[in-house]
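subagent[fold] <- orchestrator: predict structure for attached chain, return tokens only, no commentary.
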Amino acid sequence: MPERLPSFEEPTSESPSKKKIAKPRKHSPINDLDLEEWREYEDILTDSLWLIPERDRSGTHMADYHGNFVPQIPYQAMRRFTKQGDVILDAFLGSGTSLIECRRLGRHGVGIELKPELAQQALERIAGQGNPYEITTQVVTGDSSDLEAAPSSIAGALNSIGRESVQLAILHPPYHSIIKFSDREDDLSNCPTVEEFLQRFGRVVDVVGRFLEKDRYLVLVIGDMYADGEWIPLGFYCMQEVMRRGYSLKSLVVKDMQGNRAKRNLENIWRYRALAGGFYIFKHEYVMFFRKVGKNGRSPLQGRGENPSGVSNTI
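subagent[fold] -> orchestrator:
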């Protein structure tokens, strides 16, 4: 009879029993996750449909600013695409949501806000958040679409952190004219046409591209709009503006907008409008994840000069 071969589990008589060797940790170069322990990361979303029942109100997060995004978005982006000690750049800071998350997660952050009074409010909220990792956050007052002034302001803020580049960019621009955030001409929500909005949004991508490292991620949070009886696919228009500047689209997430503030307690009115107008009610927005793959991620627009502008504040 042929001799029975030992199974993979059985030690042979010729060799001693093998001791169990600990497997090496599998780390990504862009985050702190240990893939050997992947089952433990129940807080991290991996599906393309995000159903978030309510915004995180812990820490100094508040929902009083109309148009700010839920903290869960920057939380997910930072956990997946950054390590502790990395630097995040938010080109539309608003009330400071992303930089509050920077403090909670141990990432340095630079945020640009157009309106001085809102920038000051963001500073106060960020300062009120605990800073257990002793990171640095900077709030810059200025126009992130200004190809001359914005790069110098960002470079100055990064210099105070001891850095020259960022590892994650977050863009949450106005959804064109859906919400008017101010009366300023340089406010993207006051662009007279979609075409001008896209042109100026593209300049923001140009500015951010100067500082985002190659192969790192840009996150765009954007929604569509309805105007003059027509659905305007603003999200996909903005997606094209990013992609033609040297970025590849890695994922497109649809996030639900249940309890949207603008439609709160008006469900019946919106339902009637939809039935009468032949359209469907917006219940979603997009979270798009791009990887910078082009040479420097730059367009010809970025060859212009830079002049200092804006007020930089360190926390």
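orchestrator: received. Logging for downstream: Helices lie at 72-81, 97-105, 116-128, 149-161, 194-209, 234-243, 267-277. The first strand starts at residue 49 and ends at 50.
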